[in-house]
Amino acid sequence: MLRFCLALLAIWPVASVADEPEWPQWHGPKRDQVWPVPNLPSLLPKAPPPRWTKPLGGGFGGVAVSGGRVFVMDRQTLPKEVERIVCIEIDTGATRWVREYPVAYKGLDYGNGPRCTPTIHDGKVYTLGAVGHLYCLDAATGKVVWSHDCVKEFAAKYPMWGLACSPLVDGERILVQVGAKDGCLMAFDRKSGAVVWKCLQDRAGYASPIRLDIGKTKLVVMWTAECVNGIDAENGKVLWNMPFTVTYDVAISDPVWHGGILMCGQYWEGSLALKLDENGLNPQKAWEARKLRLLMSTPLVRDGHAYCLDRDNGLVCVELKTGKIKWDGFKVAYDKRNPHASLIWTGDGRALILNEKGELIQAKLSPEKYEELGRSKIFDGSWAHPAFAHGCIVVRDDRQILCVDLKGNE
Fold this sequence. Notes:
Number of helices: 2
Number of strands: 33
Strand content: 35-45%
Structural class: mainly beta
């Protein structure tokens, strides 16, 4: 019997943090704000020590993890002004490679550094800089595969706080909101960098495109500074648009699609919910809520509800079909002018909320109530989106990047 059990152990797969999906892009492995880790401890230390820290320059761009490596962007001003793409080993914090290129931020507001989260796919890294530099690099070496200066090549006009779109891989294409003169949204061949299609003459906002299959339609939804647009993913044809003009162009929070409702939320004019038909066409206003005002935080969605960070009322639960507020008022962020928190689900249905003060909050969210399970102080805080992988959270600010174990020594 003992020999039989040992033989089973030899062939039976043993789950470990290395088996968990990594965080290769904005909003996680499936870009749905889910970290499918099933066994996160129910209680985390109040101030868990970092596995490692490394100096880093400025930037609001988030962190990605793929192949056991961390990818992040920053800006350096001395001895010359450059944006950098940095690759770091997640286990040790050792720098694997750095790729830099010259930039000129000039009068860019909040001009500390890049805003995008790198996208890693099929051995390549895709990044968009704050003033329009689009790069494809070899993930193993940092070697340039192809690049575009979108301002020089496509007459792109970046908004006052810089381009912030995180590149989206869709099959053989990479989709990026670049604000070009005749193509606010552009699709590039992901291997060669050749332009496949471009569309929209809208001003650029700060959100990233989302990709939906609805009925017979392969749909890209792009919220610009002027409209919510539905675009044919195959050819870039604009299928529909709904005007949703934003003060100061702060279309930042990504649209969310759930239960037949497409919701966008912004800081000044509130939120707009659209109902689409069975093929993702013919948008109709489901509801508007001028007092449900979001900023940078993309809502979590589940079971017909959205959990949103409102500028005045804290964390809010809204019924997506009706716009009815089920509860509000829970303080998960602190900044009175620009409250921010990055929200994700875990594999067991809990929410992790990292606020601008560097607190990681564990909570249970349901239409009935908000139940806070605990808070851990991870670092001093930032607006940048973290990465969750290998049992860790990886965060950055304008001075450093650090990796913190959330599962102990499992």
